[in-house]
Amino acid sequence: MPTYEGKAAVFDLDGTLVDTLPDLWRVTNAVLAEEGLAPLAREQVRRMIGDGVRRLVERAFAAAGRPLADGELDRLHRRFLDLYEADPHRDSRLPEGVVEALVALRDDGFRLAVCTNKPQRPSLAILEAFDLARHFALVVGGDVLPVRKPDPGPLRHVLARLGVAPARAVMVGDSRNDRLTARAAGVPCVLLAEGYGEHRAEELAPEAVVTGFAEVPAAVRRLVDGD
User: Fold this and answer.
1) Is 12 known to be catalytic?
2) Within a domain: residue 184?
3) Is pTM beyond 0.90 here?
């Protein structure tokens, strides 16, 4: 049996650590334009994010009036990745308070990791671009394992690698997938009130809802240490 010790905070990436919507929106509309379709509004794309790039492409083309068969979806998924990975952080932004929250949690003894459905390569590029990678002991993208969130496998994998028990960990995210993943893994969840996807944070009944990153350290400590 493995020995678990310490405590961890595991973060989603899109809509949590980094506001990546501007680049996802830009590339979505670029792919649609190449296929002769009209662009989607920013808020339309916001609601499509969270289940990985393939699902984003599928949803975008359905919303644009051209549902995709599997072969065409494969092609356009690859095209999206080619465009996105060429410049995944041009218009993205770092929300206020992210770095301060990560430093505070590290100083309090938390091990930090990223668990995202975004593919590994652009995930690492974005974290490096915003000088966030140095804060994390582990990054697990959506193409690292055979399953993705909301399957609990990626989060369980992260905790096993960190050597932290579920009861001593917190998932910090912004979407339904983060909530479902945490619940299935037996991990409490903190959700940002303004996130991606179709559901409001309060509707998902996480253990805590925060309005910004300044509130994250206290919420995480309270769930793990009871402070």
Assistant:
1) yes
2) yes
3) yes
